[in-house]
Amino acid sequence: MKFRNNILNHAVKLALTTTTAGLFISGSALAADEQAEVTKVNKNVEKIAVVGTRSAPRSIGDSPVPIDIIGGEELGKSGNTDMLELLKGAIPSLNVHSMPISDAASLVRPANLRGLPSDSTLILLNGKRRHRASVIAFLGGGINDGAQGADISVIPSIALKQVEVLRDGAAAQYGSDAIAGVINFVLKDASEGGSFEVRQGQYYEGDGDTTQISGNIGLPFTDNGFANLSFQYKTADATSRSVQRFDAANLIEAGVPDIAPITQIWGAPEVDDDISIFGNVGLELTKNSEFYMFGNYSERDVRGGFYYRNPTTRPGVYGGTIRDVNGTNMRRPGDDNPAGQKLWDDATPTVLVASLDGYDQQINCPLVELQANGAPDQAAIDSLSAANCFAFNQTLPGGFTPNFGGNITDTSLTIGTKGEFTGGMLEGAYYDLSGTVGFNESRYFIYDTVNASLGPDSPRDFSPGKYSQLEKNFNFDLSKGFDFDLAYDVNIAGGLEWHEETFTVTSGDVASFTAGPLTDQGFGIGSNGFPGFKPSDAGEYTRRNYAAYVDIEAPFTEEFLMGLALRYEDYDTFGSTVNYKLMAQYHLTDDLNVRGSISSGFRAPTVGQANVSNVQTNLSSGVLVDSALLPPTNPIAVQLGGTELEPEESQSYTFGAVYTIGEVFLTIDYYNIQVDDRISQSEKIELSQADKDTLEAAGVPNVQSLAQVSFFTNDFDTTTQGIDFVANYATDLLGGSSTFSLAYNWNETEVTRSTDITGPFKVSRLENDLPNHRGTLSWSQQWESFSMFTRANYFGEYQGVHVDYDETAKTADAAITLDAEVTYFLNDSISFSVGAQNLLDQEAEKLDFTVAPNNNWGGKYYETSPYGINGGFYYVKATYTF
């Protein structure tokens, strides 16, 4: 019965020592004798995980699948205040890009576990499915193009007891999205005590000032319960790692006025009034049942940079109409060439000019040619008013750079009851009945731009509309042990789940989508850079599914455990799927065990991916163009290869070992994940004139200015394989207590099938953008009045890419960054910390101008840098614990 007793002992240890161990890890000041006792206890503590099993909680060493557990206190030892960055520092197989100038992906950044997109990792809160964000990453940096995952950034570290990361496919246990693994955020559940923390920091460059105020308090909820409440308030200034664009510098030299010193900003966005409130409530109803409730309210405003609009070439605003050298003919976008190709070859580029008297008078407006130095003819511009003509060079002579932003609101509530049946045929069985509602809304804003078709009457700021995601989930779980005369009881669990997902598109303000009076004179419709959603674009799209599952764990001997999970899931859109998972663990000795699993999985296309449409501005081969994202069933998408989306399907297996040598704890696991029919945004496909005419007839705005279209598609297969290695060691050192941790991940993705819709550069990004090798080495040291934490982060070679342009791509060098924090404990309640992230200010890989000599986008570093582009960040922190 050794195996069973170990599990029970671990559960008891967790209940008895969580508070003490947490105090030790965080380094609260203790008397010397108390410190020694805590150290003694801490060495015997084994971390316990609930994720990955439906039986009793397991220590991570006794789990048949690989699990990482990061304590809430450990997450707090970082200069970064973003949960994504905190997890990236603790989990080498998790990668997060900075995503500057990435449309909505700048508002909710995607994260990649084991090299797969963000929506291939299932997010849980207290073991319950977390709703996904309303943001779809239209410009997702290759690997995340079109991904729609959960918004992890709303979860404050101060609210967390621990984070459990299941690094194994788990669709048979938890349903869709668990192809890469599962991350379970476990909220604090103390009924007393708490902490209050103030943190201030900035980057070495002197920007990105960040202030964070957070707190947690545990309260009794009658004599038999708890109410644990947490909050976090944060503001962060924008950063800039930019140089002046070449075209802007040339225009300044040519004498064009009102051009900013830096016209296009690459850096972190500005974040204002970022507030998150989390609550976790539990109440014992009887000796065998309890009530629980938890949820959150979070909101933030984000504003970041966008692409510069050149005052001589931007189609639909400054350029797009060409006259011949005699000024007698005019060509608008889409017009045939009535006078023969030679005439247009001889044509002189001009500034786009409109007659305020109407289309018929446009030909009579003064001609504003571009001079040899590239600047518009200022005298001609000055003559426009007298002729009642208009060009944006009159009001915005230096061009303009829109700012893209949004207000992100996230809220959820879970209510349930769980316990043990005390009579009847289910006596001794454990049950869990719960309901969850989650909502995420992204209201978009675009500032400092124009609706060119409105001419001089255009406002500068717009609200193009909003996306919202509403999810409802109901679960009923049963679990009971049965005596089949094995080493101990066979645990059989089963349950039912019902899930509803609704994606809503809400139209924007009228000025953001209306076709103004200058439309027929070649001026673009809608807020430039992000045209608003028209009422005809608005809609509500809903999908429902239900599931039934069974989970069996059988200890054939005290040394040998096997588990089997089966799940049937039915969707009202594409039908049903059945998935399985088989896992096993064998203890070769008391100190060494081997483990493995094989499983199938799936990821259902999101309702948003199946129905959303959007017009966005992006760079294509270094040129700024407008492109339309269409639903895959749109006639144009179908004509170009689009089909109704089907679920992704996966096969994965892992094999590993766990070894304990004295105080050294080692795990190593190999994994292989094959995903067929992966869902992603297609390559941008060039539009023919016939395509444009069809789109225009369907009501798509600015069709003639559109250069490309894309759509979501099941278009390629991948195989991802890798190795995770983790080592931990605790000892007494330097007159105090030391803990060392080493974690390493090797990850490699190969695209095994693709078509022209995917494109060779997309394949390269999927295979090479993320580093194949990542590692961390951390050292935590505790003395009576001081503590220290330092971590070295290794990032292997990766593909440096800028503005999603293949000519910028190069192999970037490996790098090491260093994080450190030192804490002084004034007394039992008050501590002060100083620390730095990227302590030695390791610079990101600089853009290689020999690779891309015509860099005209203001960039300084490759945006795919796995450790960001902002450099070193230092901070101070004060903590009050009670």
Automatic annotation (TrEMBL):
Q: Write the record's keywords in alphabetical order, separated by commas.
A: Cell outer membrane, Membrane, Receptor, Signal, TonB box, Transmembrane, Transmembrane beta strand, Transport
Q: Which InterPro entries match?
A: Beta-barrel_TonB, Beta-barrel_TonB_sf, Plug_dom, Plug_dom_sf, TonB-dep_rcpt-like
Keyword hit for DNA-binding: no
The TonB-dependent receptor-like beta-barrel domain covers 400-839
Q: What is the membrane topology noted in the UniProt record heading this document?
A: Multi-pass membrane protein
Tell me the first and last residues of the signal peptide.
1-31
Q: Where is the TonB-dependent receptor plug domain?
A: 62-182
List the CDD domains. Answer: ligand_gated_channel
Q: Read off the PROSITE patterns from this record.
A: TONB_DEPENDENT_REC_3
* PANTHER family registered for this protein in UniProt: PTHR47234, SECRETIN_TONB SHORT N-TERMINAL DOMAIN-CONTAINING PROTEIN
Entry's family note:
Belongs to the TonB-dependent receptor family.
What is the recorded name of this protein?
TonB-dependent receptor plug domain-containing protein
Species assigned in the record: Pseudoalteromonas rhizosphaerae
